[in-house]
Each structure stands twice: as C-alpha cells, then as structure tokens.
Amino acid sequence: xxxxxxEHIISYMKENKLFSNKQYGFISGRSTSLQLLEVIDKWxxxxxxxxxxxxxxxxxxxxxxxxxxxxxxxxxxxxxxxxPFLDCDEGYVGEDCxxxxxxxxxxxxxxxxxxxxxxxxxxxxxxxxxxxxxxxxTLFSGETLYFSGAGAREVQTKAFNTLTADYIEFYLRxxxxxxxCSGAETRDEGILLEYxxxxxxxxxxxxxMVPSQYRKSKFVHNVLPQTAKSxxxxxxxxxxxxxxxGRDQWAVDEIRIGSYERMRSLQDNFNNHADPVKSGKWxxxxxxxxxxYCQARDYTLILANQQNDKSVVTKDLRLQTGDxxxxxxxxxxxxxxxxxxxxxxxxxxxxxxxxxxxxxPCYQESDCNGLQTEGTIYYSGPHGSWQNIIIPxxxxxxxxxVIFRWWQPGGYAFSFALNDVYIGPPCPENCNRRGTCENNRxxxxxxxxxxTCADTSVTQYGLFDWFDNHHDPSNGxxxxxxxxxxxxxxxxxxxNALYFSEDGTREAVTKPLNTTFLRMLQFVIKIGGNDGxxxxxxxxxxxxxxxxxxxxxxxxxxxxxKMVEPRIYNTTKEFVTLDLPADAKTxxxxxxxxxxxxxxxxxxxEWGIDSVIVGVNETNAKTFYDDxxxxxxxxxxxxxxxxxxxxxxxxxxxxxxxxxxxxxxxxSSLNSAFKVIHGxxx
Length: 682
Known about the structure:
It is built from 5 helices and 46 strands. The chain is mainly β. The strands form 12 sheets. Strands 3, 5, 6, 8, 13 and 15 form a 6-stranded antiparallel sheet that branches.
C-alpha cells in the first residue's frame, strides 16, 4: 500500500514539475550517491578557482527531539516565524500543546461485540477484529484483533496519561498450526511492544515476543518502565517482518493498561451494575452477564454459552493472614456429578502470569500438615445447588499482593454462577456460614438473626445410627452424597450399612450435634470386599481410605480425627473407637466421613460404615428408668436396641420393649452408661 501511494505522489510531482533541481533521493536516476559526486565535483572546481568552502551539517533529529521545545520555539519566533507554524493541533493548547481534556489513564480492550476499537486506538494496520472460530482462534474470550494483511501490521494506541499507571498486559498468539494462523518461523517475524512519549516520533522497546514462544495463546504482563510514565504515552504492537498476505499471522486480545490498586477488600453482590466489570471490583470477566441462575432470587454473575475458558478475575488486593474469601457458587445447576469442567479458585502473585489453587488437593499419601482436602475445586453435583464457601486466607497468600480468579475450562455446555463475593477482614464469627459479610456486618439468611447469624435452635444430643431402617438413615445426617443403605459390601456390622459406591463425591455429614458432655465416636467400617465382587472392589492405594474429621464452625474449617487406611490385602471390617478431643465438645459439632476423589479421577474401592455412635456421657447418671412409653426406644437412655419395638406385648399391661422381628440376626439391647454405687439395686 505504501509503495502504491508513493508512486502516485512522485508521479504527480513530476508531472507538475514540483521537484527542485536540488532534489536527490526518492527519484529514479537521481540517487544520493549521484548527489555526492556532483557536490564533490563542484567543490573541486571551486578550490581550483581559489574559492573557500564552508559546510553546515544539520541533524534534524537532534534539533527537534533533544533540544528543549520552549527554547526552540523562542528561537523560531526570533527569526520572525509565528502562526500558523507554531499552532497546536485541534484539542491541544499551550506552549507544550497539552490536551484540553484529561487523557485516559487506563484501557481495557476486549474487542467484544460492544467494544469500539476507535475509543482506544489511533491506527490498526493490517488487522481486523474476528470472532474466535476464525484467524488464530480464541485467545482469551470471544473476539480477537487478528493480523494477516499484506502491508504493515501494527496496532497503535492513542496517548494515555500513564503517570500513575503500572502495567500493560495482553494475550498474544503468533502463528501455530491453524489454517489461518501459521508460519512466523524466524525471530524477525516476531512482535515488538514499544512506547513513545513524543507523539510517535521515536519509539522505545518494552518487550520482544519471539514466535516460538507464542504458538498458543499466552498471557503477557509488563511493568511499565519509569521512562514510559508521562502525561501522553502511546503504545504499539507491530510485526517487524512477514512473508505477505495470509502468512505469518498473529492475534492479540484483552489489552489492558492499569495501575495496581492494592485494595484492602472486595465486595460485590452484583445488584448495582448492569455490567459487573464497570463496578471497579474486577480486572476482567469473560463475557459474564448479570441474571438469575438456578432459582436464585437475586441477581448473580453468570458465565455460560461460551466455547472459551470462563474466568472471573479480581483486581489486586493486599490481604492479611486471617482475612477470608467468601462467596456463593453454583456449578451447572445440576445434581449430576461431573469430574470434567469443574470451577477452580486460584491465586496469582505475578499479575496473572502464573496461577495456583488457593488450596491444592491433599490426601493420605502427601504431607498435608493435618489438612486433608479436595482443594478449591468445585464440581457439579455437590456444588450444583447454591453453596456458601468461606476460606481463611493463609500466610502464603497474604505474603504478597494477590489477584484471584474463578476459572472453568471451555465448552458451551458448561456454566457456573457467583454471588455475594467478599474478600477481606472477616465479619464476626464469619457469620457462622449462615449469612454474607457486607460492610463489616452479617446479612443473615432466612431463619437466622443476630450479629453472627447464630443458630439458636436446640441441637441433637449425640448420634446413634445402626442404619436398620429399610430406606433411609436416621435424621441425624445433614447430607449423604454418593451413598445409600445396602449390603453391597456385605454385612459391615449387622443388617444394612451406609454403602458408598457412586461416582464423584462420597461423604456423610452429620447435623450439628451437642457433644458437650460426650466422650467418644465409635463406628464399624469396611473398605472394599473380600470376595472381589464388582459392587465392592478391593482397594489398591492409600488414597482410597476414608477420612473422619469434625468442624465446630459450620464447615468452614475441619480437623482430622482419623484417617482410616484401606487394608489392601485384608478387607475385613474394622471397629474404630475415638476419644473426642476437648475442642470437639461443643453444642454444634459436625462430624464427617469422606473418601477423596483422588488424583485424575482414578477408580476407588467402595466402602460402608455401620453402627455409628457419638455418645457415652462424660458424667454418668446415678439412676436408670424407662417405661417405654415412647414409640421408639429413647436414644438418650439406650445405646442400642436392635430389632426392638416399644409396644404392648405379652400382656405387659403397658408398653414393653419387644424383640420379635425375624431378621435372621441376633436381638439385643444395650443401655447407656450410668454410675453404679454401693447399695444400688435393679
């Protein structure tokens, strides 16, 4: 294009005899070498005739780029040169031609359907905005700025006030193996990132992007050099060399210029801004929309209907150890467990160049410092309904300024939503995970009140479950995932057991229990079967064990009681009795049995538990009496009543404890412990 324009201009000037006889260069047959020969010839002739020769060498670059402009203007005015030579361009005034309107100091170019490139860029040569199924594909989300033209390939920003800016970042791909994105095999076919503080007269290099390192979309983050911070700085990305139209293509997306904000907290319930990015809380959101998701009553942030990876990225925060990350999440609005396409909560200390899970999965085979966890990975199924998550900030995360992101691998069929996000100093008692933290106070869920959203209802005293109901466990369980009553691992203790065999999460979590004066947890467990049956396969590694832990803060944090390791060569049942530690004795203790998902979705052995007891008083009663007037044996008096029913029987004259059900098993009853003193009778 430049060659064509040049030829037309030269042709026009020749036809109209606009070139001086002193013009050399740019004209065929009048090269600068010819000019030098003619000048030397004239100098030789002058010397032969006895004349003196004076030479003046002019460096226009130094004259206009390194000399102070105000001094230069004064010299020009002293020569009698005034307007229009010294007039500023439209929109600029003063001796230094400063802009009449304040310049933008930030930029976020996502090239989406609602984005207008002219708002941030002066020139785009050789490139165009394309959607993700063309050109170099999706780099971050949706559309990209794709370069494949025959001439210059460059994108140049307008001038920005970067005095307070800290970084420029973007996603870049150079070539690769796509039909419309290939080539770029040599270094000089790479991309340069440069800046100018003098309107584009001179440019300075920030980074060179070598093609071999950008065959796939890669995030680029650059801290601005101090010399790039000025009231009017331009940036450009350009390709030094290419092999012609449709070859050595490249693309860029999500170009951002900004400053580190080091926010002390972040809070967003997505009720106040139609475009969440404009709330000032988020660095970027991949095509997220505000709406109501999966029976939510309030607005949420929804990420759906995108082939690309989905992510929500916070601005940078300066946190302290003991702060919290709190949010509500729903993955897929489905009870069906899927191991693929989970949502991961990650953090970065380097502006997003590298990411790590806030908590990595950690199981028996690893050194977990007592914290066995599935990590900050959220799957459909267990998180297919709205779940309130609270994560204390660790010392590792609080060590440096940090950004967080919720990230889900791409696919149109997969989605997730967020709501009530809060990161910062905790509210009192973390609202007991029954409310959201807003402006340092708890907004409680329905049914809970007070400054900490405490549960004032009376909790169940201990737990006794032999799973002898034909259909469901007792009502002492908050949730059971991946398990049901059955005998598929054989008889664990006697009768039915709680048997776990389904894909995905396998856990049994009690309701909050009053364990204030209780002594122990007891249960019988069997991991795998000794008959090699399909319904109860033998374990093959330690990670197929079952972890028993407890929580006293409504499932915010967990403390391990025991890791029941599988008996790899002997799958007989195991009787387990555990003393409850002092800090597990509260009026709201939750106990959990769970089997890790493991790494990479490997197969796991099935397992069952039976005869679960949370009981045995620390201080025993001195008397014992029961007339069996209740419909069932009183669980506060009877530790076990197998195959027993309280009813009138054998002319008892009132209710008695009758053992009559034919189960093919022994019938027995055990009473709770009480203190026997000298002289007592039965």
